[in-house]
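quick one, two chains, predict together pls
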Amino acid sequence: MRRLGDVGTRKAQAAFEQDDVDQAVASGDRQRAFTLLMNRYGDQVYRYAVAMTGDGQLAEEVRQQAFVEAYRDLPGFASRSPVRAWLLGIVRHRCLDATKKARRWSLRYKNESSVEHEVDDAELGDQIDRQRMARLLEDCLATLAPAAREAVLLRYHQELSYDEIAVLTGDLPGTLQQRVARALPVLRKCVEARLRPGEDSNEL
Amino acid sequence: MSCEHYWREGILLVERGEPDPHRDTCLQCRRAHEARGHLVGALPLVGGTRNGDPSWQTRVWGRIARDEASRARRSYWIAGGFAAAAAVVLLCVHFGAGGADHQIAERPRFDIVPGPVAMRSTSARVGDRVRISVGRGQEARVYRANHLVLRCPVGSTAPGCTPDDQGLVAEALLGTAGEYQLVMILWATADGRRGGERRGQEGPAAVALAALEVADPVGTLDRDLAAVVSAGGEYKVTDLSVR
């Protein structure tokens, strides 16, 4: 979880990263700028794509396609927005496309929903390892409506502010806040149901 | 009895960054707020244990190289159309004005040299030779089915490579039917200009130095072109069908 004390440091770091890429773009060194982008944001973009699509292969395809587009559009980027938000904007569109395609394919040929990971361990609470928790959340995120999943992930996975998300999605910050506020209890119930099948619990 | 205030209203106040006086007086809502904290705190873990394809960056460079190659091919043909039209106009002007007795040698240029059994055709035939003439500071390569068969770096005197006063000429026998790719590479000089551009005092040596900074081709077209782009070079690819 992000701590309040980290906010200043994160802003300073983001500004430094922005300057770095801006300088490379301004000096016409597109390849250096692009290499910086790939090294810095490659993993982050992949994790976001995994969370959005729920599919590692699809996420890899999204990452590669998004970076090819970023390379093409880099000369016209011109620092109109923070570089990370600009990149996430591209990734977001590719995720939406990939999800739509996958859903069409699934409906037409497979006629089945996404694979669910069974909780095969009775350990609860603090004993749940991070990997298992991540898996549970991944599955539960897939049960949210796409717009809600996107808002939750941009806010708490990518840690963008509501104003930044509003620029990316074209929604009002208040709408996004409500969307997240409605989605979190659904997510919580889903996680609890998978942690404790057959029980009704109030705590995560 | 459980208090549902937090999940109905309190959570929206949190998202808005507004205070929730009820929470201060309600133990259940404080616990619910903690649960929300755990949930939100775990969200960054999603996807965190996966790394994806370890060679994804190479694949991205490969895709970029392919995109640029197809774009270059398109613009090459468009430019070729304009160049042909311009050439016709120039020839008309040239002969209309009485003519000069020198020939303009355009580079880069690809010529098919007919083999012993010459046939009129738009594509090359087995037994023909392809001759690639490139300017100073440019490199020529021939690939068959995307695999390297001839490489003539700047100034090379290797078999099939002949340097001349305008650059070099690469010549390869088209011994097998199939798809060939003729590649001309422009290496950037230290000051960022390309090998084919007009330069002042510097000779081809500076360009050759730039070319040396890139690793030798591994023999696969996409990977080699990606390496060229990574090293700051530019390239043109022409496909040739040999029957």
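Chain A has two domains: 1-115, 120-204.
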